[in-house]
User: Fold this.
Amino acid sequence: MRLSEKAYDHVKTLLLAGQVKADEWLPIETIAEELGASRQPVMDAMKRLKLEGFIDIVPQVGCRVRSPSIQEIDDFFRLFAAGEALIAELAASRAEREDILSLQLISAQIGALAENGADNKSQGENYRILNRRLHAEMRRISRSPLLTDVVESLGDRSDFYVALSTEPVFGLNIEQAHQEHQAIIEAIANASPQEARAAMEKHIFATENRVLNKLETRGQA
Assistant:
C-alpha cells in the first residue's frame, strides 16, 4: 500500500471513529512519524480528505477537522437520503431470497447490541460497524455499481457528522435505529420498492435529527 493511501486510511479512521473533534488541529509531523513516512505522503492524504469535505487546510498554519454548519449538514442529508432511498427501492425490486436472509442476519446482530449491557460509546462503535455492513449489503443487493460507489462515499460523510457530536449518537439510539432498519428490510422482503424508499428516507432523516440534536451549538450554525 502506498504511504499516502496508508495515511489517508489512518486519518479517515480517526475522523469516522470520533477520535478527533471539530476544529482540532491534525499534527502532520506526528502522524508521519507514527506511519514511518515523510511529511509529503501525509499532506497528499490531507489534500484528498479536504476535497472530500472532512478537513480544512489553512495555508502556512496546518490542517484541522472541518466544523460544518447546520445548513451544510442539512443539505448533505437531503442528498444522502435521496441516494440511499434509491438504493432501497432498487434492492426491493432486485433482491433474492438469500439477500433477504443476509440483511436479516446483520439486523439481528444490531438488535442484540441493545441487550449486551456495554457502555454507550462501545455500543456506538459496534453499531457503526454493523450499520455500515447493513447499508453496504443493501447497496450490493441493488446491483447498481455506479450508484453504490456514489452513495458509499456519502455514507462516510454521514458517519463523520455523527462522530462530530458531543454525545454517542449511535449508542443512545440503537433500538430506534434497529426498528427503522427492520421496516426497510420488511419492505425489501415484500418486494415493495416505494415502501422501501419511504422507510429509508425516514431512517436517514431520523439520523440527521439525532445528529443535529446532539451537536454543540456553534457560532457559524
Q: What stands out?
A: The radius of gyration is 18 Å. Residues 70-94 form the longest helix (25 residues). Residues 217-221 have pLDDT under 50 and may be disordered. The longest strand covers residues 55-58.
